[in-house]
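Course assignment 3, question 2. Fill in each field.
Student: A.L.
Task: Predict the tertiary structure for the chain below.
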Amino acid sequence: MEVLGSINKPNDPSLPLSSLRLLVPPLQLLSAAMWQLAKQKDVMNYEKLQEFVFMVTEAVPGLINHRQKAQLILGLRARLILELCKGSTSGSVDCQVIQSYLDRLPITATNTDYRDADVKTTESTFIALVQSLLKDPIERAYFFQEVFPVEYGPQYDAALHVLLWELLSKLEKLLPVPDLKQTAAWLGSAPSALEECVQTSPEELSLIFEHYKGSGLLKMSYSRFKCICAQLSVKRWPVFHCW
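Answer field:
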């Protein structure tokens, strides 16, 4: 499974959020944002990522199995808690804040879907570890210097990425982008939405086309263009110069 492939071309011009919202369906845009949080290891935003995973898997059961779901949510929560605990080595985070996260950690106790012995053992072991780190500053310093880089380093991140990509890729296949005919039908039955759509500024549209051309996604060869012009002429459409 390809997880960290070239999703974005390096030479693609960046687009503002307003233009991205015109190009990309909302759920796909949100999924991409969650993927970037994980890819950039934005640990302090992992709580948002957890909420997204939980929301999607509750709305669409079966995208990933129960154990994968538990591993992904537990992995994200554990990584966030350790980041908070790491900050507490300098006294910048109150231990009570970390304990509040620990109190919300167990997912096997509140959901029958997670009755997996290995997951439950991992949970209890992790909670005991963090409680021990909070009680002993020396042990905490040793853990983050020697153990953390090995146990929660690149391999840990890669495992989270694999699980998350599995979820996102299946979600993408489940919700295809509607074609022009279907979209037009929806707008035809929603006058307020139609009115809002036509308010799109010419500048935004110009930016989008420039983006496509700069990315090599909007190409029409000269010969193909001449062919289209000839077809239009045969159909007795208004005459225009196409050269």
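Instructor remarks: The two ends are 47 Å apart (CA to CA). Residues 207-243 form one domain.
Grade: pending
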